[in-house]
Specification:
It is built from twelve helices and five strands. By secondary structure, it is mainly alpha-helical. β4 and β5 form a beta hairpin.
Length: 301
């Protein structure tokens, strides 16, 4: 059974008013029946019961519903989702849940949705001015869509970025911070890719080539009437009109990298959190490094 501060509306230092179950369903894009079903399964904490026995929900419920959605998009069953949620700290807040969702979504295929402005405002539960849209764009959460009045939305970042709309950070500062983050994360990605290529992928290719060479040698002993080996492709695979060799190599790379990708992302987040706390302490004193810094930075990425 899920417990913790996520059951309390307005937790995480937000001033958002509590939501009824109907309002929560509209914000999360699910049905009331789904919310109640998740509650009976223990995937959602119970609401706070207010006057006239009306259940009140908060930001933690919304973030948890978004995380459940991403986990299911990854192909997890409800039982697997339940096990995943059970491993989270019991007092985890809405911002940290949103970061978990962003990490999960980072390994999904590109799936930016195109929505109208009205739908974007409905999902966030607030009106959006042109300045708000510009700030969301600067944080990478939305971009102009193919039609006037439409926007491409990154579901993993949207709610995180929206939490920064009321923070007094200048637009130029957001752009500068995002530039710094992109520059350094690309450098890290480049070095990690080089390590993967040289220490994992190339040895795998060498073993595959040795195996293919052995098969061709054995096939050649079958005489001139035997089948001829296929011409090697540009990277050692078998070339064909349908590009089967390239597809097989891509699938092999995905299989090799899949187990380490979540670990790499979590390691990067953890290392960055520690480095940021150290820098904040050095710049502003020992009490300056709070838990909100990493959440805000993740939103700005």
């Amino acid at each position: 059974m899920v417990t913790g501060t996520t059951a309390t509306p307005g937790s995480d230092g937000t001033d958002e008013p509590p939501l009824t179950v109907d309002e929560l369903a509209a914000r999360a894009g699910v049905t009331v029946r789904t919310i109640r079903f998740y509650g009976t399964r223990g995937l959602l904490p119970p609401p706070v019961i207010g006057p006239r026995r009306v259940g009140h929900y908060g930001p933690g419920h919304l973030s948890r519903l978004a995380l459940i959605e991403e986990l299911q998009r990854q192909g997890m069953t409800l039982a697997a989702v339940e096990r995943y949620l059970e491993q989270l700290p019991p007092d985890i807040g809405a911002q940290d849940l949103a970061i978990h969702r962003a990490l999960v979504a980072s390994w999904l295929p590109d799936s930016a949705e195109v929505v109208a402005r009205e739908e974007l405002e409905r999902r966030l539960g607030r009106g959006l001015g042109d300045d708000d849209i510009g700030r969301l764009d600067a944080m990478g959460a939305v971009a102009r869509g193919p039609e006037p009045g439409t926007y491409r939305v990154d579901p993993g970042l949207l709610r995180l970025a929206a939490q920064l709309l009321d923070v007094p950070i200048p637009y130029e500062t957001i752009l500068a911070a995002r530039t710094v983050l992109l520059e350094h994360t690309r450098s890290v990605a480049h070095e990690l890719t080089r390590l993967f290529r040289d220490e994992v992928w190339q040895p795998y290719r060498d073993r595959e080539a040795e195996g293919a060479g052995t098969d061709r040698a054995e096939g050649a002993t079958g005489g001139a009437g035997g089948a001829q080996p296929a011409d090697p492709g540009p990277e050692g695979g078998c070339a064909g009109p349908d590009g089967a060799g390239r597809a097989e190599r891509a699938e092999a790379m995905r299989t090799l990298s899949a187990p380490i990708r979540p670990l790499v992302v979590q390691a990067l987040v953890t290392a960055f959190q520690r480095s940021l706390k150290e820098e904040l302490r050095a710049a502003f004193g020992p009490d300056a490094a709070g838990s909100s810094g990493a959440s805000a930075t993740a939103a700005g990425d």
